[in-house]
Amino acid sequence: MRDCGIGRGGEQFFRMIVESSTDSIEVIDLEGHLRFLSARGLELLQFNDPDRLIGQPWSGLWPLAEQPAVTAAVEDAKRGEIATFSAVRPTGRGVSKTWDVILSPMRDETGQVISALAVSRDVSKIAGNRREAAARELALRRSEAALKSAARIAKVAGWEVDLRSGCVHFSDELWQLLGRSPQPGMQTTSALNFWAPEYRAAFAKLLEETAQNAGRLIFEGEILKPRGKRIWLRVMGEPALEGETRVALRGAAQDITAERAAIDRLEVSERLARAASDAKSKFLATMSHEIRTPLNGVLGMAQAMAADDLSSSQRERLDVIRQSGHSLLSLLNDLLDLSKIEAGRLDLEDGVIDVDELANGALAAFTNIAGDKGVYFQVDIGQEAKGCWRGDPTRIRQLLYNVVGNALKFTEQGSVRVGIEHDETMLSIRVADTGPGIPAEKQATLFDKFVQADASMTRKYGGSGLGLAICRELATLMGGEITLKSAPGD
């Protein structure tokens, strides 16, 4: 049985009550299908196989003449109203029995009707058997007492506001929550004083609106207990009707102090996590700038020295310095981009992306690199993708160059091919290579920060594992996505 808003412990206790009831207990979903039948109900209806009934239209289990009343009762329950009717229904053995049925709406924790609960009592012999009627009445009282006990277990309390007299009535459970003695004949103004001052006006206004508009009331706030103690209360309710007249507001209240405390702890944890992330991002940005300044000096001097008359060994050493410096500068740029993205400070340019220029730039940047490795490199542009498009050209170029550079790094032979297409409303860039492929278990984390498919690749090829993570973030910022399709040896 689904959770009907009384909590897991209450639900277990409620199930025990249902299964021990002397009446047939049935649950009907909002489409009118039978979803639950108690063991006693199966016995009363004289069916051996419940699978013949579960999932069937409930109205179809009644004779054709009774179906209008049955259907009307289900509709009333869907609207949140309690319906009653008496009708004849045959058992699985063809014996006709008269049933008194009470159909009540079942709600979830938000007050939304999720199904209907039918209590069907066999009254075929009631006229001729007063003892049986008395026993049924006793069983009903016991069921009511047990249901009240289940409500106490679930810490659900009841309340009512009489719209004709202005009197407010609380259940014993609600008085216990308030930590006060019952006050018979209490007026609305007195009941409002149980709320903390900052909640009184809002709740009073909600009560008035619910009474006037026949809506559903849901409210959370703090109430005052003796000695200044506060607890959080969730209140739910709706108007009660007599005919077309709204005569009362009725509902339930529940102590949610522990739930609110958990929410507050989570919010504090989130604030601390955001503060730590901001501090980390600021640190990375500061250190990237601080390191870049002297590094640019080193690279500038290396470039100046390259023009001098150097021996072959000195030039080799100078090339190592320049390559190492550029690698470090690339890493610093990645760290700076990552810190901006995590801090939410990376702004995209609303510019123009020239696809032909983008493709020619990629060819100029990577053709020689691919040729040195003996790898074929090609860029193809689909007919529909040609021309200019709105977007950030710098970030598109960064994303493309990063992915192509990554493909060339791991491709020792074969080819790297780039295809630029226009897919519905977006540009689609596809990079295919004949590299070693990536196992399926590694693909899920490939776009995470500081992750590479194989630790040995870091030693062989270098890299920090930030490039693809930044590509994913850039693609997401631009309203797209980056995906992978690969297999070892593919």
How is this structure best summarized?
46% of the residues lie in helices and 24% in strands. It is of the alpha+beta class and 490 residues long. The strands form 4 sheets. A 6-stranded antiparallel sheet has the order 8-7-6-11-10-9, with helices on both faces. It has a 5-stranded antiparallel sheet with strand order 2-1-5-4-3.
| Silhouette | elongated
Helix/strand order? HEEHHEEEHEEHEHHEEEHHEHEEHEEHHH
What's the CATH H-level superfamily name of the largest domain? PAS domain
The total domain count is: 4
CATH topology of the largest domain: Beta-Lactamase
How would you state the average pLDDT, rounded? 80
Low-confidence stretches: 1-10, 143-147
> Which architecture of the largest domain per CATH?
2-Layer Sandwich
For the sheet with most strands, the description reads: 6 strands, antiparallel
Indicate the radius of gyration in whole angstroms.
Answer: 36 Å
N- to C-terminal separation? 50 Å
Question: What is the topology, as strand order, of the major beta sheet?
Answer: 8-7-6-11-10-9
The CATH first-level class of the largest domain comes to Alpha Beta
Enumerate how many helices there are, as a single number. 14
Class inferred from helices and paired strands:
alpha+beta
Which strand-content bin applies to the residues?
Answer: 15-25%
Helix content estimate: 40-55%
Strand tally is: 16
